[in-house]
Amino acid sequence: MNFEKFPAEVSIREVGPRDGLQNEDPVPTDDKVRLLNALSRTGVKRIEAVSFVHPKAIPQMADAAEVWARAEKNPDVRYSALVPNTKGAHRALEAGFTEIEVVVSASNTHNLRNVNRSTEDSLDDITGLISLLHDEGASAEVIISTAFGCPYEGDVPPERVASIVDRVVADGADRVSFGDTTGMSTPVRVARLLDLVKARHPDVPLLLHFHNTRGTALAGILTALDYGITEFDASVGGLGGCPYAPGATGNVATEEVVHMLQDMEIATGVNLPELIEVARLAQEIVGRELPSGVLRAGPRLPQISREKN
Amino acid sequence: MNFEKFPAEVSIREVGPRDGLQNEDPVPTDDKVRLLNALSRTGVKRIEAVSFVHPKAIPQMADAAEVWARAEKNPDVRYSALVPNTKGAHRALEAGFTEIEVVVSASNTHNLRNVNRSTEDSLDDITGLISLLHDEGASAEVIISTAFGCPYEGDVPPERVASIVDRVVADGADRVSFGDTTGMSTPVRVARLLDLVKARHPDVPLLLHFHNTRGTALAGILTALDYGITEFDASVGGLGGCPYAPGATGNVATEEVVHMLQDMEIATGVNLPELIEVARLAQEIVGRELPSGVLRAGPRLPQISREKN
């Protein structure tokens, strides 16, 4: 590892308001707006704000349009929304989003269980979705979930993930994101996938989305930094839990990512003490203790930051 | 990072029975013996079994001699004990230990608060302790705690830690261990310290002891592996907590370390499903949920190991 060659700057996308809250018990619209507004003031550069999904499938996001309409938009923040299909895409476009994410699972079984169609069929839908989004002047990011393993199928071959990248890049995807959906990544799996994809698509922006279910999230980020990756998802407080194991950790906590990067002198723009305050707010909103170590124990130099404040 | 050059094998020292239980509420002697015996059967190669400290200072270890006398000794396991001073060393030697650890804090303030003397004075004591242990045919490991930061002083310069290594190596220390006592390490700090120490003492065996208080433990281990380090401490279930922050994580969980290394095809000798069973036992013994992600969520391929069993 050559720390000297690590990127000087990293762009964190805060996914707590969407991916986080979507995996918690539903919370009131007011709280969602409060959380979004508070995050918009932390210095974070990107926020995944909401998803436009069917309210019966995901009641947590039923009020997406209202949340977004009421949220303060910080001109320094790039906001995005996730959509599952054409209907969702139209709702997101109507709401004014210009950065839109669509999702497909690398594991066929996972895709079938999630959206009742094969990975192949979802990719066909995505071809049309990318065109639609581009026609309306929005960018299209394809999130490939279960990119490091599937809870049903087990290991997912990196070649399979890379061939999905080939397909969506050919279809015009502006960015590709790899989801460690149930926390099955380990450093060597991150390296193998990035080796393949970077060789084939050196210029496609890649974003990594780690879960900390088995403690490996920051090790995965470290590995990705060594590959020059500069875009990572993270969730304030570790909001989102792990739907497969009650009490277990899901999304890596934004504070833990910022805290490590800060000590490595990699800029994120995020004000860590403010972010920790927002993690406390998130904890209050969902009414349970969140798993973020930096939230619980404070940053590594707590007494020193106390003195400074 | 060049995974091809990573060590093929890693020696984990299980510290749950000593460092773990020493930082939990006291548990009965029977439970300590059960835990030790169960760990001895997991395939782990080394166990820090007990410490011989003053029972008034650390009541958790008051029954160390009895625990050790009653424990089953697996001939394939190397057992060690920690001692704070000459009296403790004599007790450990009497009990039959031949691998003994002594400890000094790199941070002077931490050393003063812990043992009421300066780092310099502790180092003078250690000179005598190493001689005594060698005279009695035992090996002497020096643990340098707060090696990546101190909760009172903040950052600890790696040069200071390296100069302590110089001193104890000159005094005959057989091994040196770096303690991330309150979870203040980040990958770049691990690299800086190892750069310095490996350049000066390429042949001294180094052992790293990480805490996962702020999520960085496995990233630290990954960094150390890149430096060729092959010895790590870990605590079953993450036993040990964090005395500075209730509910926070202390020692990195042995299951998380074994789980990551296994997926990287680095041998540890440990049977992961058996180790997870012992983590459940540890949880039962201390009567609280332990922070290990692999204990809570299971290994990354749970359904597959279920099918195999």
Number of strands of chain A: 8
Q: Largest sheet of chain A, order of strands side by side? A: 1-2-3-4-5-6-7-8
CATH class call of chain A: Alpha Beta
Number of domains of chain A: 1
The helix/strand order of chain A is EHHEHEHEHHEHEHEHEHHHH
Fill in the CATH topology of chain A: TIM Barrel
SS element count, helices of chain A? 13
Instruction: Supply the CATH architecture of chain A.
Output: Alpha-Beta Barrel
Protein topology:
The structure is a homodimer of 309-residue chains.
Chain A: E1 11-14, H1 16-22, H2 29-40, E2 46-51, H3 64-70, E3 78-82, H4 86-95, E4 99-105, H5 108-115, H6 119-135, E5 139-145, H7 158-170, E6 175-179, H8 187-200, E7 206-209, H9 217-226, E8 231-234, H10 254-263, H11 272-286, H12 293-297, H13 302-308
Parallel strand pairs in A: 1-2, 1-8, 2-3, 3-4, 4-5, 5-6, 6-7, 7-8
Helix pairs in contact in A: 2-3, 2-11, 7-8, 8-9, 10-11
Pfam families (chains A, B): HMGL-like
Family (chains A, B): Belongs to the HMG-CoA lyase family.
InterPro entries (chains A, B): Aldolase_TIM, HMGL, PYR_CT
